[in-house]
Specification:
The protein has 16 helices and twelve strands.
């Protein structure tokens, strides 16, 4: 990979471009309080965070990305609308692949604007696209909001819908749950054994554990409700699979999703939002006919993305990570805003990957 001095120089160039677009520079500490942040990051980052203990400040972590601290800063002190840019290093442990960097640079652009989310989505995507226009990259997009809406529209219990929603970003776990909830796979033996037990306070055995007897009893009650719930119908599972299998350019994907919405009306509003986003991208001059849409795109990215997601990739360099990624994270602003929220969308570029591709050109 390129030397750090070159990476910093390219990062400065990219950040300057974002400043020209109207963004204010945001500075966040490298050391972040861990208690709140670890609950907000996805499973992958939580497992890879560098965490340490401070006798005065408590558990601290090396910054794994910029978005969460920037959102915290904005929700505490920011005016509306607002645009921020930043550059600096982030840190993630690598336990399975020694070739992946555990310390690298991000340059980002974040928009907090409630006036027109589709236009803000298009603004961020277009600015990143223009910044990388000199590279031969493939752009891919998706929408976590479509899948979340589809899950909420399933005819099943609220607990099951909550579990599926929680695991949207874990495709294997999501599929395992869906197969079990639809009756395609049986209840695991370990769960059957637990269902056969009485609550701890009734067993006559001393209670030992971190959960209280009441919590265990509530859990067993929930398991009984789950076992007795009607299976999700095959038709609904097939429609959900059809949504996940959509893989087309944006205009054709929109047509497919409109057809799916006829039988899955829960996604109708999300489909309308996609149409508005496509129109906003087109108005920015983006060639939407050559932008891919994948129904399952973004499901292994950060869990705070809850709507539009996108990435830019060098298809001829499978050894490199995404050059840029981004997405919408409205719910994150509500969590960090103590009930207040504002539509927000952002993206990051990795300057060392940009330099690597330029050197190979």
């Amino acid at each position: 990979m390129p030397q750090k001095a070159l990476i910093r120089a390219r990062a400065a160039e990219l950040r300057a471009r974002f400043e020209e677009a109207g963004a204010s520079v945001a500075e966040t500490p490298v050391l972040q309080p861990a208690e709140v942040l670890l609950d907000l990051y996805g499973e992958d980052i939580r497992a890879r965070a560098y965490v340490t203990s401070d006798s005065l400040l408590g558990e601290q972590m090396l910054r794994p990305d910029f978005t969460v601290p920037v959102v915290q800063m904005h929700m505490e002190h920011g005016a509306e609308p607002a645009r921020y840019t930043y550059s600096g290093e982030v840190f993630r442990r690598q336990e399975d692949d020694s070739t992946r960097a555990n310390e690298y640079t991000q340059v980002g652009y974040e928009v907090f604007d409630r006036s027109n989310p589709a236009v803000a989505d298009a603004e961020v995507f277009n600015l990143v696209s223009q910044s990388l226009a000199h590279l031969d990259l493939r752009a891919a997009t998706g929408d976590i909001g479509l899948l979340a809406a589809a899950v909420q529209g399933l005819e099943t219990t609220e607990r099951r819908k909550a579990a599926l929603t929680r695991h949207i970003w874990r495709p294997r776990r999501f599929r395992a749950l869906l197969d079990r909830y639809s009756g395609r796979t049986p209840v695991p033996p370990s769960r059957e054994a637990l269902l056969a037990q009485d609550a701890p306070m009734q067993s006559g055995v001393p209670f030992i554990g971190l959960r209280t007897p009441a919590e265990v009893s509530a859990r067993i009650e929930a398991l009984h409700e789950d076992v007795n719930a009607m299976p999700i119908s095959s038709a609904q599972v097939e429609m959900l699979d059809a949504l996940l299998d959509v893989r087309e350019t944006l205009p054709f994907a929109l047509e497919q999703l409109r057809d799916i919405a006829v039988d899955m009306p829960a996604i109708t509003d999300a489909v309308f939002s996609l149409r508005e986003r496509i129109e906003a991208l087109d108005a920015k001059g983006v060639d939407v006919a050559n932008i891919d849409f994948e129904g399952s795109f973004g499901r292994t990215n950060l869990e705070y993305y809850d709507g539009f997601v996108f990435g830019f990739f060098a298809d001829n360099r499978a050894d490199l990570p995404a050059v840029a990624t981004g997405g919408r994270y409205d719910a994150l602003t509500r969590v960090l805003g103590g009930g207040n929220e504002i539509p927000a969308v952002g993206a990051i570029i990795r300057p060392e990957v940009v330099l690597e591709l330029e050197a190979a050109a």
